Amino acid sequence: MTNYHLTPSQFREEGKKIIDWIADYYEKIESYPVLSQVKPGEIKAGLPENPPQKGEPFEHIIRDLDEKIMPGITHWQSPNFYAYFPSNTSFPSILGDLVSSGLGVQGMIWATSPAATELETRVLDWLAEMMDMPEKFRSTSTGGGVIQDTASTSALTAVIAARERATKFRSNKTGVREMLVAYVSSQTHSSLEKAIKMAGIGSENLRLVEVDEQFSMRPDLLHELIREDKKKGFHPFFVCATIGTTSSNAIDPVRKIGEICKEENCWLHVDAAMSGTAMLCPEFRYLKDGVELADSYSFNPHKWMFVNFDCNVFWVANREELISTFSILPEYLRNKATESGEVFDYRDWHVQLGRRFRSLKLWFVIRHYGVEGLQFHIRKHVEIAQNFTRWVKDSNEFEMVVEPALNLVCFRHKAGDDFNMALMNAVNETGKAFFTHTKLNGQVVLRMSIGQTYTEEEHVKQTWNLIQKTAGRMTQG
Amino acid sequence: MTNYHLTPSQFREEGKKIIDWIADYYEKIESYPVLSQVKPGEIKAGLPENPPQKGEPFEHIIRDLDEKIMPGITHWQSPNFYAYFPSNTSFPSILGDLVSSGLGVQGMIWATSPAATELETRVLDWLAEMMDMPEKFRSTSTGGGVIQDTASTSALTAVIAARERATKFRSNKTGVREMLVAYVSSQTHSSLEKAIKMAGIGSENLRLVEVDEQFSMRPDLLHELIREDKKKGFHPFFVCATIGTTSSNAIDPVRKIGEICKEENCWLHVDAAMSGTAMLCPEFRYLKDGVELADSYSFNPHKWMFVNFDCNVFWVANREELISTFSILPEYLRNKATESGEVFDYRDWHVQLGRRFRSLKLWFVIRHYGVEGLQFHIRKHVEIAQNFTRWVKDSNEFEMVVEPALNLVCFRHKAGDDFNMALMNAVNETGKAFFTHTKLNGQVVLRMSIGQTYTEEEHVKQTWNLIQKTAGRMTQG
Ligand SMILES: Cc1ncc(COP(=O)(O)O)c(C=O)c1O
Ligand SMILES: Cc1ncc(COP(=O)(O)O)c(C=O)c1O
C-alpha cells in the first residue's frame, strides 16, 4: 500500500540527482542566453491546463523542469548578468537554505525553536562587528538585528515604527490622524514611496529632496523643506538616506542628514540595500560615515553577499520602539520564555507571524568564506568596475555619467537616448550578456552592475567588446 | 590560488552529504524531544562571540549544526508535534525549494524570469480548480492568484487594497483621512489586528464581532454593528471571515457574511490559513459555502499541504484593484513586456519588490502527490482527529470543548485550568509529544492539532495514553 510519500531512501536518490542537476547547471550556465528569449504566454502555454489527478514520477517533473521551465529562466547567476543589481548566491548558501527546508521549523517565537532565534541574534551581532556598525545596533546594547525578507519590508517596518514613535505610540490605536511628513531624495528607491502609501501616510506627504550633481541628497534642501513643513503645521517624522541608490549608486551624506534628524526629531532610516555589503571592507566604510545617528539600517545579503534570496538584515538602535510597534500576544502563543522577558520573539520585530529558520544560510556563508573570503570578492568586483570605467574613458564613443563609488558603472554612448536603448536591446538579444538602463537628469544611462558570484574580469571584458562591436555595427549601418 | 568558492564538484560532495543528513534526520526524528529543552541563552552561549576571520571547512559547520544547533530545535516535523497548527513539509517540497535556491532567479517582474511568473499563475489556476474555487479567482477571469510569504502579509495586502477601494483610490495619496472601520470576530487571528494597525486604520476602528457557541461569527451582530457605525458617521470598509480559526477551528458563515458585505459595500477577505487545504476534498467544501462573495481569499500550503514554509496563496476577485493599489514603476524596471500589458508583474501584487522562484515547491508537491495523494493525507488527518474525539468522549476524566470540524481537537481535563496547564507542561517536558493550549470562554483548553506529514494514528494513540497516564499520576499525587 502506498502512502504517496517519497521514502527517505527515495529522497536520498532524488535529492542527489537534484544536487547534480544544480552542479551541472553552474557548469554550463554560460551556454544559456542570459536574458530569457521567450514571448509572453509561451511558458504557460507549455504547461498542462489542468492539474494532475494522480501523482507523477519524479523524473517527469525534472524532465519538464528542463524542457518547459528552463527556456523561461533569465539567468541571474550567470557571470554575464549585469542587470538591475546583483542577486547573487553561493553553494554554501544553497546548502544552508536546504538544511532550513529540511528541518522545517517555524521560528515565529523563541519557544517554537530556540536555536532559530538565537543563531539569528548571534549572526547579526557578528555582522555588526564585521562591518563595524555602531554598538547600539547590537543585541548586547539597546538595539539588535532581525532578518527580514526584503529591503522593501524593512522600509515598511521602519516607516511604521517611526510613525508610532512620532505619534507617541497612538497611531496603531487611532489610525493616522496627524499631518506626518516623510523625506527621501529624488533618487531613493521606490520601495520607500510604497511603504509611505501602505502605512497610511500618503504619497502627498512624501517630499522628494533634490540631489546634487553626484545624485546625493542635498542636506541643506532637506533642512529647508523640514522647516517649511513645520511652519505650515506639518509634522516631519521620517527621513530615508540611501547608501548606494539603485540608479547610479549615489551616496547620501548620512552624517549631515543624521544631524538634521536629531535636531528636528525625525527617525533616520538608512537603506544600504546593495552597497551595505561593501562595509565588510574597511576601505569602503567612509561611505557609512554618520551611521551612528540612524534609528534603523537595512541591507540585503541577498544582493551582493552570496546569500540567496531572500535575506535582508534590519538593525534598529532601540528595539523597544520596534517591539512596541509590532507586538501582539494572543493566548495561544503565551509561554514561559516569552513571559520571562529573557528572549526575543522575532514575530514582534516585523510584519509576518510565521518565519522559517532564516539565519542558517547566512551562518553557512559567513563560516565558509570567513570575513577574508567575503572581502576578497567584494574587492574584486569593485576592481573590475574600476577597470571597466577606464575602458569607457579610453573609448571615443562612450562616456561615463558618474564616477562609480563601488561596483556599478553608469555610462552611455554619445549618440543619444534612442541609440543607447537600441544598443542595449541589441546586446541583450544576443543572449551573451544582460544589462539594463536607467534615466539620470532625463537622459538614458546604461548600467553595468558587477556583482554576480562568478563574474570575472574576462567576462566583463568580453561584454565590453561586444558592446563596442555592436555599437560600431549600428553606427555604420 | 583559492577564490574561496566551493567548486561544483565540492558542491556535489557536500550537497549529497546534506541530503543524507536530512534523510537521516527524518529516520531518527522520533528520538529527539519534540519540544526543545534548552533554557534562554543556552544556544547563543555555545556559539562563538566573534565571527570567523578565515573560512572554515564544511565539516566544521555540519559538526556545529549537530552539536550546537540541534539541541535548540523544536521538531515541527516530528509525527508527535501537535502544537499550534501544522507547518508540514515533504521531500518533494524540499527538493522544489532546493531547485529554486539553485537557480537563484529573482522574479520581481515577468521579464526577470518569465517562467517564475507564468508557472506561478498556472499553478494557482490549477489549485483554484483543485479546490473548486469561484471562476473569478482565476487568471483567465477578472482575478488571479499570487504566492505571498504568509497569511499575515496577505491580510495586510487585503486590508490595504480594501482601504484603497473604499477611498476611491485616494488613501495611497492622501493618507488615511476617512473614518474607516473594519470587522472581524473575537476569534479572528491576531494578524488581522496587526494589519489594521500597520495600514494606518487603527485598532480603535476594528470591531470584534461576538461569536456563537460554536465560536463562529454572528452575522446578525455584524450587520447591527455596521449599521450603528454608519449612523455614527463611520465608513465600514472591510470584513474578515475565517474558515478555521486558530484557537478552535471555528467556521464563520461566509455566505451570510458575504451577503452583508455586498449590501454594505465592504471588502470581504476570507482567511482559511490552515483549513483551506481541506477544500481539496469535495466532502469538506461545504465549509467554504459563499466564497464566491469574497473579494480576496488566503490559505497556507505551508501549514497543511506539505509545502515547506513559506508559501501562502492569495486569490483576488479583481486583480485591477490589487494592482492599482500596489504598483509602482521606476524607470529602471521599465521594459517592453510590462508596457505591452500582456504579462503579470507580481511585485505589483504585494508588499515586496524582490521575490524568489516561489512556485517551484508547490508545483513539485502537486505533481508528485497528485490531487489523489493530497486528498489521502487530508482525509487521514481528519479521521485521526475523529478517533481522538471518540477516545476523549469515552474517558471519564476528559471532555470535548467543541466538535472538531476537521483536524483540530479541543478538549480538557475536568479538573480545571491549573490542572490542564500543569498536565500540558508535564507531557511536553517528557519530550515525547508537544501540544499547546488556548482559552475559550475564559477557560483553558488543550489543543491537539493533527496535520504533520508523518503523523499516524498510532502516534496520536500513544500520546493520548501518555496524557491519560500523566493525568492519572497527577490526580493520585
Ligand atoms: C487562521 C489563521 N490566520 C492566520 C495565521 C497566520 O499565519 P502566517 O504565519 O502565515 O501569517 C494563522 C496561523 O498562524 C492562522 O491560524
Ligand atoms: C537601494 C535599494 N533599496 C531597496 C531595494 C529593494 O530591494 P528588495 O527587493 O529587497 O525589497 C533595492 C533594489 O531592489 C535597492 O536598490
From TrEMBL, chains A, B:
UniProt xrefs under InterPro entries = Aromatic_deC, PyrdxlP-dep_de-COase, PyrdxlP-dep_Trfase, PyrdxlP-dep_Trfase_major, PyrdxlP-dep_Trfase_small
Task: Name any cofactors this protein relies on.
Answer: pyridoxal 5'-phosphate
Please tell me whether the keyword Transferase is annotated for this protein. Answer: yes
Keyword Lyase tagged: yes
Q: Which UniProt keywords apply?
A: Aminotransferase, Decarboxylase, Lyase, Pyridoxal phosphate, Transferase
Q: Which GO molecular-function terms appear in the entry?
A: carboxy-lyase activity; pyridoxal phosphate binding; transaminase activity
Modification type N6-(pyridoxal phosphate)lysine: residues: 303
Gene Ontology CC entries for this record: cytoplasm
The record's annotation in Pfam families points to: Pyridoxal_deC (PF00282)
Q: Entry's Gene3D superfamilies? A: Aspartate Aminotransferase, domain 1 (3.90.1150.10), dopa decarboxylase, N-terminal domain (1.20.1340.10), Type I PLP-dependent aspartate aminotransferase-like (Major domain) (3.40.640.10)
**SUPFAM superfamilies, from UniProt?**
PLP-dependent transferases
Q: Name one GO biological process term.
A: amino acid metabolic process
The cross-references to PANTHER family, in alphabetical order and at most eight, read: GROUP II PYRIDOXAL-5-PHOSPHATE DECARBOXYLASE, MIP05841P
Which family is this sequence assigned to?
Answer: Belongs to the group II decarboxylase family.
What is the designated name of this protein?
Aspartate aminotransferase family protein
Origin species: Mariniphaga sediminis
